[in-house]
Amino acid sequence: MTLSIGNLQFLDWKNLDLTIGDGEVVCLVGESGSGKSLLLRAIADLILNEGAIELDGAGRDSMSPRDWRLKVGYLPAEIFWWEDTVAAHFLNRPSKQALESLRLSPDCPGWNPNRLSMGERQRLGILRLLDREPEILLLDEPTANLDEANSSLAENRLLDYIREKRGGALWVSHSSAQARRVGDRAFRMKDRILVALDSETGRKDG
């Protein structure tokens, strides 16, 4: 599954080109306000933008917004919960195995979201995104509120999903070390351009 972005324009960004190949993780780092989150929102078609965005050759404009967002799943930095229970936000109630994979209580689907810690919200947000089985993941700092151990679990859960789905991900991170660790390619957003972090990043499959 390949996501192709051509001549993307949003706000004061012009002519941004990027391709995410089959099973590839592309990471973005940069200072606050550099446009990382806005880029994800533009691809998800949540802010005004222009350009050619295709998923395996099918243009975004050929799909309804709902169908596009089912195929290209967006995880915001701040995850909102509005129903009375956690489970009501899922298409399918999260399994005990899925919850345990992120060190979450098997009882938490029945909880009111107000009871959740920031870290629990973050981990459940990841499961909520994957529950919809998107082809491409747009991840806005998915481990920002997690300690080192839980961050590692979340990274592995996301990478396992990407490998199994043979999809891809655009992963925004506050950490260059994480970007090198999980990404096949990594860029710094600076002065309205993408600058390669390194010629090689750290993730290896297998």
Molecular structure report:
The chain has one domain (3-196): P-loop containing nucleotide triphosphate hydrolases (Rossmann fold, 3-Layer(aba) Sandwich), CATH 3.40.50. It is built from 6 helices and 10 strands; from the N terminus they run βββαββαβααβαβαββ. The chain is of the alpha/beta class and 206 residues long. Strands 6-7-8-3-9-10 form a 6-stranded mixed beta sheet, sandwiched between helices. A 4-stranded antiparallel beta sheet has the order 2-1-4-5, with helices on one face. Strand 1 and strand 2 (13-20) form a beta hairpin. The protein has helices at 36-43, 65-71, 96-101, 118-131, 148-165, 176-182, and strands spanning 3-10, 13-20, 24-29, 50-55, 58-59, 72-75, 136-140, 168-172, 185-190, 193-196. The mean pLDDT is 93. Helix 4 (118-131) runs parallel beside helix 5.
